[in-house]
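Give me C-alpha cells for this 409-residue protein.
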Amino acid sequence: MKNTSLTTKLITAAVFVALTVYAIFLAWNYLTASETVSMVYSYRTERTLALDGVAVRDETVIECSDPLVELTMTEGERVAKGASLATVYSSSAALAEAKELDALREQLEQLYYARNASRDTEAALRLDREVESDIIALNAALANGNYTALESAASALKGTVLRREYAYRGGVDLGGRIEALEQQIESASGAGTGASRKITAPFSGTYSAAVDGWENVLDPELLRTLTPSEFERLSPDSEYSTVGKLIRGDKWYYAAVVSEEDARALDVSESYTLLIAGIDEPLPVSVYLLSKEENGRRLLVLTGDRYLSQVTTLRAQGAELVLENYSGLRVPKNALRIDENGQTGVYCRIGRFAYFKPVELIYQSEEYVLVEPGEIHAARDGDVVLYTIRAGDEAIITASELYNGKVIK
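Here you go.
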C-alpha cells in the first residue's frame, strides 16, 4: 500500500514538472518568436538648413518728423508715383476733426450698403458668410503673430458686423439716418480740416510704415562686397520717419552667414524654398550670391520676387531653407532586411503569411526610411502584385527566421 502511494506521488510530480517545462517553453517561444508589425503609409519630409539672417530690400525712407500725421496707405500696399502717402496736420484739433470726418464717411458707406442689403435677402445672407470669413481671417492673423494683418482684419470685421446689423434691422429708419449723416459730413467738410500739407510718393513702389534704421545700411548692392565678418559688424543708424518708407521694385533679399560645409550643399543655379514663422506661404527663393570663404564661413544671400507685401516688416529673422523634398512610403528603419541575393526589402504580413518586398531607398533618418517599390523578378503578374510594397501594407519589424510564406501569428 505504501509502495503504491509513493509511486503515485512520483508520477504526479513528474507530470507536473513536464507541464511546467512545456508552459515555460511555450511562453519563451511566444516572447522570442512573436512578430511586431507597423503600417506602411505615404509620407513627405524635407532636408532643411537653419538660418539666422536679415531681410534686405531696396528701401527709401520718406523724410518726415511731424508727429501729427494721418497715413493714407496700408502696410504692403502698392503705390503709384505721386500718390498720397500721408497728410500732415497743423494741430491736434485738426487731426481729430479729420479722423471724425473719416469715421462719418465710413459709417455712411455702411448705411448705403445696409439699405441695399435690406432690399435683397440674398445680400443680407451673404453678410453672414462675410462675418464668418472675417472672423477666420482675424484668428489666422492672431495665430501667426501678424499684427499688421490683425489690425486690417479687425477693421474689416467691425465694418461687416455693422453692415449686417443695419441690414437686419430693415431699411425703415435708414433713409433719415443717411440724410442726417450726409448733412453732417457736408458741414464738417465745409469747415475745413486744417491740413497743412500732403506727402506724396516720389516713385512707384511698395509702402511700409516700419522704419528701423537699417534702410540705408543694408543695401542689396553692398551685399556683393561684404565678407561674413563685415556683415556681422553692421549696425542700424538713427534713421526715423513718422510716415514710413517705399520699397523699389519687386525683389527682396535674405542674408545670413553659413558654414563652408553648408555652402557646399547650395547651388547658385538652383531654386529653393524659404520658410519663415508668421508667413503662411512658403517663399520661393534662389541664391543671389555666396561670398568668398572666410575662416570656414560664407555670406549667403537669397533673393525672391514674390510675396513682397508679406515681408515688408521683416528684418532680423530666423528661417529654414528647404534644400530637398522627399516623398515615398514610410517604413520603420529596423524593418529593412537583406535577402540571400543581397537585395534590400521589407517583409510584410499578407493575411497569415510573410512575403519579402524589394524596395529602393529614397531617404533615411534615425528612426524611419522612405522607400519606393524595388525591382521584382517574377514571371507572373500576380507575383509582381504580391511582392510590390504599397501603402497599407503591414511591415514586420521583429520576428525570427523570416522567409517567404512563413506563417505569421
